[in-house]
Amino acid sequence: MKTMIKTISALACALLLAGGHAGAQEQTASDDLPVCQLDPRDSSKLAVEPCRPAPPVQPRRSVPQVIGRMPAQPAPPVVPMAPLPPSPAVPMPRAPQPIGACDTGGCRDAAGARYNGAGNATLDANGRICHRNGAFLQCF
Fold first, then answer.
1. pLDDT tens across 26-62, in order?
2. DSSP labels, 45-84
3. Contact at 8 Å (CB) between 44 and 52?
4. In the chain, what are the domain boundaries?
5. Contacts 24+ apart (CB under 8 A), 23-27
6. Labelling 138: which of 52, 58, 88, 95 has CA 20 to 30 A away?
């Protein structure tokens, strides 16, 4: 068993030395070649073959992230505005009124008020738009 362990460790050392030596020979051979570049006349081909790849880019170093605050902005100036004139009061829509009878020119509600118009859109005596929905009429 001891001889087997010695043999395995001797083989591992030999492989490491041989691999390191072969890698060193390969590296010196590729150092003699120029760095690969594209042909300026035909970008699908290399300018010189054989060539060696470009040297590796150095790894990026880590730096702490600093997030600063935005500078304080001055408040915009307040521009005084004149108050708006009061608007006329908008009448609230009345509750739907039941329709009494309709003809081709419009309808009458249960109280007898006339609504002129055809279809679902009619006008009351004040000119407000009224909407007819089945047996009810509501003015806005």
1. 555 667 888 888 889 988 888 888 888 888 788 878 8
2. SBSSSS-BPPPPPPPPPP-----PPPPPPPPPPPPP-PPP
3. no
4. 1-54, 97-139
5. none
6. 88
At position 67, the amino acid (one-letter code) is: I
Count of beta carbons in the 10 Å neighbourhood of residue 138 = 14
Average of pLDDT values for 17-28? 51
37 neighbors 51 (Cβ within 8 angstroms): yes
Strand partners, 109: 99
Contact (Cβ atoms closer than 8 angstroms) between residue 98 and residue 108: no
The one-letter amino acid at 3:
T
Whole-prediction pTM: 0.35
